[in-house]
Amino acid sequence: MNFDPSYILELLPRIIGYIPITLFMAVLAMILAIAVGLVLALARNSKNRLLSAGAAVYISFFRAIPMLVQLFLIYYGLPQLFPIFTKMDAVTAAVIGFGFKQAAFLAEIFRAAFNSVDKGQMEASLTVGMTKVQAYRRIILPQAARNALPGTGNIFISLIKETSLAFTLGVVEIFAEAKMQAAESFRFFEAYLAVALIYWLLIIVYSYLQQKLENYLDRPYRT
Amino acid sequence: MIKVTNLRKRFGDLVVLDGIDFEVKDGEVLSIIGPSGSGKSTLVRCLNFLERPDAGVIEIGGVRVDAEKCTNREIRELRLQTAMVFQNYNLFKNKTALQNVTESLIVVKKMPKKQAEELGMELLRQVGLEDKRDNYPATLSGGQQQRVSIARALALRPHAILLDEPTSSLDPELVSEVLQTIKKIAELDTTMIIVTHEMDFARDVSDHVIFMADGNIVEQGPPAEVLDNPRMDRTKQFLRTFHANRKR
Predict the structure, then answer these.
(1) Quick one: pLDDT at residue B247?
(2) Residues A66, A8 within the same domain
C-alpha cells in the first residue's frame, strides 16, 4: 500500500499556517450573517407586510441557490454589470457570499427563537414602562439568544467548512494549500487527510467553546 | 384617580367590553369579580393598552387617553401610571429577583445602579424576600415569584397597581402568602384594581366591588352590598354557584 504517514506530519505545519485566513473568512462572514439575519428575522416577524414579504423573498432566494453558484455570481458576475466590483478582492467576495447566504438560514433560526420567548415577557416589559426596543434588547434578545445558540453553532460549523469553496475564487486557505501540496507530491490521500484532520480539530475546539457558552447562558434557568 | 368612560372592546364579532364606566379614588381598592369570559381580564388589560380598546376614554393620574385617537407617546405615558401583576407572574426569566425589581428603575427612570439596588432591596424586604435577591425566577416557588412581581410593580411608584387574578395559578398552600402581601400593600393606601376569584379576600381588602357579566357591569358598590346583599339576580346566581362549589 502506498501510504506515507510521515508525509502527513510534514504537511500539517504548512497547512496550519493558513488557518488564520480560513478563520478570518468564517468569523467575518458569521458577523455579517448574524447582523443581516437579525434584521431579516425582525422584518419577517414584523406586522408591516412589505417588510415581511421582502424578508421572505430574500430567505427563499438565498436558501435555494448553491453556495458555489452564488460565489461565482458575486465574484465573476457582478463586475460585468458594475465595473466598480472588479476592484473587489476574492476574500471580500467570499465573505459577502458566505455571510449573505447563511443570513437566510440564521433568520429562520432567530425567528423561531424570538417566537419561543413567552409573550408575557414583552407584556411585563411594557407594563414597567419600557419601550419595545428596550424590551427587545434587555429581556427578549437575551432569552432568544439562549434558544438560538445550538442552531447558530451549526451554522458557524457549516461556515468554517464552506470557506474551502473560496479556493475556486483563488483564495489560498487551508484546503487550497493542501490541494497545491498534493499536486506537487502526488500524495493526494495524505494531503487531503491532513486537511480533513485540521477541519476536525477546528470543529472540536469550536464545539468545546460553544459548550462553555451554553453553560454560561443556561445559568438563569437551572433549578 | 382612575376614571374610565364608555370603554368598548370586541374580538371579531364577540363584544367583550360593552361600554364600561367606573371610577376609583386615590388609595382605594377596587375588586372586579364575575364568571370567566365576562371581560374582567380584558378590562384591566385595556387600562394599560396590553389590549387596545376600540373606544372609550381612560384617565389615570392626570393622563387622559382617548382610545379612538391616541399616539404611541400617550399610550406609554398612560402605561407609566400603572404597574401590573400577572396571573402567571411574568418575571423576567433572565434576571435575578433583585434585577427584576431594579430593571425599570435603571432602564426607564435612569436611576444610578447603586441607588436602584438600595430601593430594590427595600422593596424585596417589604415582600419578605430579601434573602432571595440573587435567585433567578426558575429557582423560586410560585408564591415567591408573585411576591417578587409585586415588588417589581411597586418599584416605579405607579399611580395604581393592576392585579389580574394574582393567585389563580398558585398552589392552594401558597395563596395566603400572596394575599397577605397584597393586603399589606393595600393598607399603605396604594390604589389597586384586582381581578379575583377570592371572595373572602375581596370582602376583606376592597373599598368597592364590581360584578361583571357578558362585558357589562351588572352591579357595583361596597363589598358588604355586592357580596353579601346583591340586588341583581345575575349577581345572586353567580355568588350562589360560587358558594355551592366551595362547600363541595
Answers:
(1) 65
(2) no
One domain for residues A39 and A119: yes
What cell was used for A11?
A: 504537511
Q: Are residues A78 and A180 in the same domain?
A: no
Burial (Cβ within 10 Å: 0-12, 13-18, ≥19) of residue A12: middle
A187 with A161, same domain: the answer is no
In chain A, how many domains are there?
Answer: 2
Q: What is the interface pTM, i.e. ipTM, of the complex?
A: 0.92
Q: What is the pTM of this model?
A: 0.87
Tell whether A139 and A215 lie within a shared domain: no
The pLDDT tens digits of the residues spanning A124-137 come to 999 999 999 999 99
User: Is a pLDDT exceeding 80 seen at residue B234?
Assistant: yes
**Closest CA–CA distance from residue A121 to any residue of chain B (Å):** 6
Question: Tens digits of per-residue pLDDT, A200-209?
Answer: 999 999 999 9
Contacts of B71 in chain A (CB under 8 A): none
Q: Which residue of chain B comes nearest to A222, CA vs CA?
A: B138
* Chain A contact set for B123 (CB, 8 A): none
* Closest partner CB to A128 (pick from B93, B136, B156): B156
The verdict on A184 and A209 lying in the same domain is yes
The answer, for B94 touching chain A at a CB cutoff of 8 Å, is: yes
Q: How far apart are CA A36 and CA A210, in angstroms?
A: 21
Picking from A169, A203, A179, the residue whose alpha carbon sits closest to that of residue A11 is A179
Residue A54 corresponds to which cell in the numbers above? Answer: 421582502
Number of A–B residue contacts, CB under 8 Å: 74
Q: The CATH number of the domain where A139 resides is what? A: 1.10.3720.10
State the residue range of the domain holding A82.
Answer: 19-168
Domain ranges in chain B are 2-81+159-247, 90-157
Superfamily of domain B2-81+159-247: P-loop containing nucleotide triphosphate hydrolases (3.40.50.300)
Residues B78 and B198: their CA atoms lie apart, in Å, by 28
CA distances from A19 to A2, A8, A161, A176 (A): 28, 16, 12, 11
Confidence of residue A5 (pLDDT cuts 50, 70, 90): confident
